[in-house]
## 1
Amino acid sequence: MRKSKQIQNLNVSNWQTH
């Protein structure tokens, strides 16, 4: 598993929060 996926998931969450 890569950590990139988790980072992208956090980015998406941040985008939806904004």
## 2
Amino acid sequence: MMKGRTDQKNYAHAVQHLRLLVSRCVNDILEKIVPQLVPHVLHDKLTESVNDHNS
């Protein structure tokens, strides 16, 4: 009877731990990759709009 409870506790703890890890990874990705991507995307959009005006 008690074993089921500890399994549930361990599972809940594992899920919490995983969530923490995932959120950390996501934050890392956002901090490292997005600043590098955003200028490219903005640059592409700007050049596209400039090209549209010129043609």
## 3
Amino acid sequence: TRVQFENNNEVGVFARLTNSYCLVGIGGSENFYSVFESELADHVPVIHASIAGCRIIGRLCVGNSKGLLLPNTTTDQEMLHIRNSLPDSVVVQVSQPILIAACLDVRY
């Protein structure tokens, strides 16, 4: 299924998908969310969230099935929402942006 976020094909900017969860940025069209939910909801939780008030969560965090690193600009409310929505097995930590950038180059 093809999906766009406000006429933008770069959906990875607005979403972070692992085999344990899917984070999607808030503020997209209902069609954007419905594609993720219809394809993934039976397998992983689809979580609507923002990071530092932004929707480009795919670029602001890094994660895999075991953990998620968020930038230190993440608000406490955003952190709690994300942590409470993820499976208990996923460790969520707030980190300095340089560590997140370094992790983008790591392959698991």
